[in-house]
Amino acid sequence: MTTTSAPSGPSVVEQAVLDAFAPSSRRDPYRAYEVLRAAGPFVPGPLGTQLVTRYADCDAILQDPTWSHAEEPDLLHPASDVELPGSFLWMEPPDHTRLRRLVSAAFTPRRIEGMRAHAERIVDSLLGTALAAGETDLIESLAYPLPLTMVCDLLGVPADAHADVRRMSAGIARGLDPDALLSPEELAARTTAVHDFATFFGELVAQRRAHPREDLITALAQVEADGDVLSPQEMLGTLLILVVAGHETTVNLIGNGMLALLRRPDQLALLRRDPELAAPAVDEVLRFDPPVHLTTRTARAEVTVAGRTFAPGDAVIVLIGSANRDPDAFPDAAELSLTRYAARPRPNRHLAFGLGLHYCIGASLARLEMEVVLRAVAARVAAIELLVDDPPYRPNLVVRGMAELPVRLTNGDPR
Ligand code: HEM
Fold first, then answer.
1. Is the CB of 204 under 6 A from ligand 1?
2. What is the pLDDT of residues 240-279, one digit of tens each?
3. For the segment 349-365, what is each residue's pLDDT rounded down to a tens digit?
4. Is residue 31 included in any domain, yes or no?
5. Domain contains 9
6. Number of domains observed in the structure of the chain
7. Residue 340 sits in a domain of what CATH number?
8. What's the gap in Å between 242 CA and the centre of ligand 1?
9. Domain residues for 127?
10. 97, 103, 360: residue to mutate for ligand 1 pocket, most atoms within 8 A of CB
11. Does the beta carbon of 176 lie inside 6 Å of ligand 1?
12. Using a 6 Å cutoff on CB, does residue 292 contact ligand 1?
């Protein structure tokens, strides 16, 4: 992904575009976003796109069905020699409506809320081990195992296969970044991961059809609306998005949230004083440092946004991470304030789960997991201390988060 630069070198704005996508900016892309927002609502981006920099325009584009998400595989993955199974994330009505409805029928709020006690048990055990160790990598000890276990248990993946699912999921998540940013090894790893995923889940679906259980795979295999069912390919695409979107994103919500608290002990103290802040705090963490930093849209018809007219086929990159820090939408946008979403009137919604047709189907599960983590941290952790100056980030651009978060935890457990 390159942008044209003047012979004298890139301008400040061109440099900010380069910075926003550079691996060296994973730690802090927000300074580059600030320059981009100041430059205007749209800034020329990579792959012939326009970057959408401001909250109001990101919000408007995500809500407007004139903008399609179906072109993203062609835009970002032209080098793909395997077909990433098409999930409804990359479809438009009527196919999107049909598949999303079938999945929603199985993915009920009751099923999700029923997982709260399970999440509490998992967090209790993981945090207990981490507190006993004192020094721990929170990504390995908490952020990875919780969502992995939750999504695998929800689907009905046996415990002895969780590690395999993690490996496949990581290879596919890395492969969601634009092909131009991936090495030949990473592209090959994506191919292998998708192939392994198809084999593993193909067998599991067949087993559940033959021997139904109380799990989501069985529910999806049995789901039926108006005589309609999921085809094998649709089932695979759906499982892939549920596993990858449902797992890799939440890992980073937990990691980013813990880092944010680590950098603001006053906010941790606030949470310890008032654990009821946990639920609104989840939304503030999602706003402040969202796990998904961008998505794309392509105009299906001529459409005007913020005074600029786009022709059919024009593509934009919606900078969720920038929108969430737009001071025109959020006062003190660069500050973490756990009470922000507890305030009345409610502030603007953040865009961390997207908006409109493709609004995240797993938002309630992700919120539940992070709320349980925050409640447990409030009850049991007195202080968190970072053990490295700058925690390393994974190279991933779209689903962004840390590779490690080495910390020392001080036990504040009254038990
Ligand atoms: C913190 C965690 C999560 C974040 C930040 C997140 C973020 C997002 C975003 C931004 C979108 C919209 C993408 C777009 O419009 O281009 C999305 C869609 C989606 N997410 Fe999530 N997600 C999270 C957790 C989950 C979980 C736990 C699941 C399921 C187990 C899930 C499943 C999905 C699915 C199926 C879609 C596609 C919806 C559609 O196209 O209609 N996500 N997510």
1. no
2. 999 988 888 999 999 999 999 999 999 999 999 999 999 9
3. 999 999 999 999 999 99
4. yes
5. no
6. 1
7. 1.10.630.10
8. 8
9. 15-411
10. 360
11. no
12. yes
